[in-house]
Write a structure and sequence with these properties.
The structure is a homodimer. By secondary structure, chain A is α/β, with parallel strands linked by helices. Helices cover 42% and strands 22% of the residues of chain A. Chain B binds a DNA duplex through α1, α2 and α3.
Chain lengths: 390, 390
DNA sequence: GATACTTTGTAAATTGATTAAACTAACAAA
DNA sequence: TTTGTTAGTTTAATCAATTTACAAAGTATC
């Protein structure tokens, strides 16, 4: 939201700047913040005093002298409040409670048939209620709930369409906020994963990051600078439905030859079942075969890596991110996928966009989604005010 | 650049807000600006006074009363300075001089073999020198030069790589700034076209716009909100090198089955030359054939529209823009391309992202590039300070 | 141990842009 | 002529940051 400049905005900006420093460079001192931000020592002192009185910052005693008076060290009080993050899958709900630093306090996974809206919402409410009860007493209590969903949502937290759940037009944010009176954010699962990787993974310095979530289909979350790119109406990131074969197999989305028909976990399993003539084969089994160095399994993964690479080349050429993260359960197959994938990327992508790029498999694993959901909730709580001058 | 909040920033923000209003809603009055922006009448008065004394705004007399005292109408003084926009093609240079509203004062197109760096730079300097001489006397003179290039550049205005020119690592911005002592911006041709369409075309309200420039290859410029998306290192937008056929024809970029091998002007002409068995056939001739309703030409365009559609589906699914503009010389073929293109888009793209989308052919034609280049130069001059509160 | 110098943090006075409220100016409608 | 509305200015108050000064608490050096 664009707005005019007044003293309140000024203070909000500077308070955010100070808060960010303390959150991310804790412990630090008033003098050091003043030095790094360009604010005067007096301003920093006054803002820090307010942050202390609102329990977001604590003094933890004197630090080492740098040749003069010892600094009073300031710490971010990450226990001033707690956040809840949810991953709403098709047949289970994963939920975590974290402190304001994203450190997990409590977690749970329950099975639930989420294709039924009523069942799912009851289960969701139960999970959230449980975590709220477990939250330690704190100044601000549970400050927000973030929910990652396998589908599209708008800025008001309505689920517009979630194909794998069969949901359409469900005002989930409103329902949960009415129940708990806590701010709720609804966001696509891949978008949430992107935020999680950016904030808690190994990509915190990345300027632009694409998170590729591989499951039944392929979803992608795009982060530009510190912001999630949501497209014009919240439908961005369906890179799984980029056609890599314009007259290939028909996809249920209406297109032909979509990437996810070749490179999703589902596609791999289908192929593996055909090769092994075993209609019940699942990913875990296939991983075991690969670990045992079975030729057929290794070949399947090698081919799958190639398909992954083909789509990743499209991402590189079109968006030129400096970091691509492969997430979802298929990230477990990294050892057997990575070589052929990288080979395709190196052979096919434009050299300049590739030059500063790093491709990694998720280190957060299944935690990326729930952590990202918490992170979004926490960010909303701090609602950091930033000014960019072009 | 992120920065702290102080009184100077506050004023800069508000002055920009007032200036933007006057630029885009001219003529208007102090009272109306106050009403629409939320600033007080006193603040607006004070800022307008400064803008008037710096010659960017003029009073042009009283307007119509709305039931009380007549308002004093304020006009953006678009002749306070002038901007130069350049389109650096492979074999010609198009350049224009505009006022601060982007209205063209003077224009020229000269042929020049730009594959030779020295020749090209001399020709560029000559063009710019000519236009500077033609600029009317004004308070700020020529306030900036924008150059659209068929290649990649970094934020410092170095041309990193321009395949069709054969240029690599040329510090064009530095060279031109040293010569003319005027701020210079270097930007990819498709990016510049996107800015031109957004600012001067029929897409000024679009929240996110993708401009598809079809020529020898296919380039794309992506605008999110009011900002150009440049990727991590300035290499974004090479959607022409998204593969639509993963084991298709090899492209000189190293990839297989790139979209531009099927849907560029070059691809169309190659195909047409084969069909007509005429190795000298060009686009103008083919357009004439189509106008004369020749079956072979009509079929060629119909097929080409399908290929265009296939790539556009990829753009829709991955980025969910609310506006796509097809530009470049091939936009002239709209009447014979559009039906088959739209048919493919409607059949293949995801229904939700498609719902609020509008696809149009460029109305600015070849002017999009030079106008966009001017627009970027003008934006830099106003260096508008925008505040986003998240 | 005394002195000089540094660094940390607070206090008081100053600055400057916005706001709020009051006011002048100008006009329409009855 | 009166009443009410709109346009724009003036004046005083506000408030967050800055400037300047200074106190507190340390190190380094002779």
């Amino acid at each position: 939201m664009k707005q005019t400049g007044d003293l309140a905005l000024m203070k909000k900006i500077n308070k955010s700047i100070v808060m960010e420093r303390i959150r991310h460079e804790s412990p630090t001192s008033r003098a050091r913040i003043a030095e790094k931000t360009g604010l005067t020592k007096a301003t920093v002192s006054s803002l820090v005093a307010e942050l202390i009185s609102s329990d977001l910052v604590e003094e933890i005693g004197a630090g080492q002298s740098r040749g003069g008076r010892k600094p009073m060290l300031l710490l971010f009080n990450c226990s001033a409040g707690f956040a809840i993050g949810i991953d709403l899958g098709t047949d289970e709900i994963t939920s975590i409670l974290t402190d304001l630093n994203g450190r997990i306090v409590s977690e749970s996974t329950v099975r639930s048939d989420n294709t039924n809206v009523d069942t799912a919402i009851s289960a969701l409410k139960a999970c959230i209620g449980d975590l709220i009860k477990q939250a330690p007493i704190s100044r601000y209590g549970v400050i927000g709930i973030g929910v990652g969903i396998p589908g599209f949502s708008d800025e008001q937290g309505n689920i517009l369409f979630a194909p794998n759940l069969g949901w359409e037009n469900i005002g989930l944010q409103a329902i949960l906020e009415a129940e708990f009176a806590i701010p709720v954010v609804i966001e696509n699962e891949a978008n949430v994963g992107a935020v999680g990787e950016k904030r808690f993974g190994s990509s915190q310095a990345a300027a632009s990051l694409v998170y590729v979530s591989i499951g039944a289909g392929i979803g992608t979350g795009i982060m530009l600078k510190e912001e999630l790119y949501r497209g014009a109406f919240g439908y961005s990131g369906e890179m799984g439905h980029i056609s890599i074969h314009h007259d290939g197999k028909p996809c249920r989305c209406g297109n032909l030859g979509c990437w996810e028909l070749y490179a999703s976990e589902h596609a791999l399993i289908q192929e593996a079942r055909a090769v092994y003539r075993d209609p019940t084969l699942d990913l875990d089994t296939l991983l075991k075969y690969a670990q045992a160095k079975e030729t057929k399994a290794l070949q399947l993964f090698t081919q799958h890596g190639r398909y992954l690479g083909i789509g990743i080349v499209n991402i590189i050429n079109s968006l030129n991110p400096d970091r691509i993260i492969i997430g979802g359960r298929l990230a477990l197959a990294e050892p057997w996928l990575v070589a052929s994938m990288i080979e395709v990327v190196n052979k096919r992508s434009l050299p300049y966009p590739r030059a500063h790029l790093s491709i990694q498999f998720s280190t957060l694993g299944s935690k990326a989604t729930v952590l990202g959901a918490c992170s979004i909730a926490i960010s909303r709580f701090f609602s950091s005010t930033k000014v960019w001058v072009e």
